[in-house]
Amino acid sequence: MKTSLKCMPCFMRMALHEAELACPGDEELHREIIVEWGRRLGEYDLGDSPPALARHLAELIREKTGCGDLYLEDKRQANARVQQLMPELRAMIEAERGKDGGDPLSLVLEMAVVGNYIDRGVDIDVDWEAELACVSQSLDPEIMAGLQSRLKKGADVLVLGDNTGEIVLDTLLVEELQRLGCHVTYAVRSHPVINDATMADAEAVGLTALCEVVESGVDTPGTVIERCFPDFVERMRQADVILSKGQGNFEALEGVWPGVFCAFKVKCERVARDAGLPLGSSALHITTNSSVCSCEMEK
User: One Pfam family name from the record (predicted)?
Assistant: First the structure.
């Protein structure tokens, strides 16, 4: 997905927020970062996806402040809070499993999508805990049925992770996929960017003890193919199913790598328009229109 001019206010807001996180109270430095970021934005190729451009902001913040993982404590707190909710969520899943015609996979995926609200890259104010407590199954039933038909015993499923907090809910998703007999590999970012999950987060929430966890290679808040390790691109090519979590992964892969099942919360008007879904809805979308990686899909 290309970057739109409508993305510019969000980029500027994020720059100010991260400048304030890195150096609280230093308004002169904040101004210097904002001015420089505005100048650089005017030079970047808007044909790139928003996550591809976002990495440049992380580089600028490090360059100007020397700060690395700005969201380290935020990520720890998000993971800890969701872990506290796990007993209740597991009870909900087992209740669904016990119903006639129950669909625990759909419920678990809905839960994991609600966790996508825990995103420090967008300016939203939503009670994700309240939504999680009374989660409804609203994902596109036709696409959900198509996904479930692909999740056969022995299927190689690659899950592209996104945010912290959300990654705790993804442990439930991995467990459900394994119940179906799928071999699951879970991918995390290779470098800290916004509050996205890294290998350290996967280890902290027990995901590495549950399934194979790999780094994608990216330093972007989305799976930007050009930033991936070559061997990770090969994993994508060989996977029977790619299940992508989060809006950033959708933005990075839409129009680039077709056939990916993208599960995310619609958190901006531009994405709502392109996905054809209401703002705030839970999306299950299949990427289309590969312009770069059609050759990558051949097995």
Answer: ARMT1-like_dom
Give the span between the Cα atoms of 262 and 226, in whole angstroms: 19
- List, in order, residues 6 or more apart from 258 with CB less than 8 Å away: 286, 287, 288, 289, 290, 294, 297
Residue 148: Cβ within 10 Å count:
14
Regarding whether 288 and 222 lie in a shared domain, the answer is yes
Cα of first residue to Cα of last residue in the chain, in angstroms, is: 25
The DSSP call for residue 157 is: E
pLDDT in tens, 15-44: 999 999 999 999 999 999 999 999 998 898
**Alpha-helical segments (H) within the chain:** 8-22, 27-41, 50-65, 72-98, 104-114, 128-133, 141-150, 166-179, 199-204, 230-238, 247-253, 269-275
The structural domain count of the chain equals 2
* Same domain, yes or no: 50 and 87: no
Other Cβ atoms closer than 10 A to 210: 16
Q: Is the pLDDT of residue 294 over 70?
A: no
Give the torsion through C-alpha atoms of 198, 203, 206, 209, to 10 deg.
110
Confirm if 284 and 150 have CB atoms less than 8 A apart.
Answer: no
Alpha helices in 161-229 (DSSP H): 166-179, 199-204
CA atoms within 13 A on the CB side of 267: 26
pLDDT tens sequence across 54-88:
999 999 999 999 887 899 999 999 999 999 999 99
Residues 169 and 255 in one domain: yes
Record the pTM: 0.92
**C-beta separation of 265 from 113 below 8 A:** yes
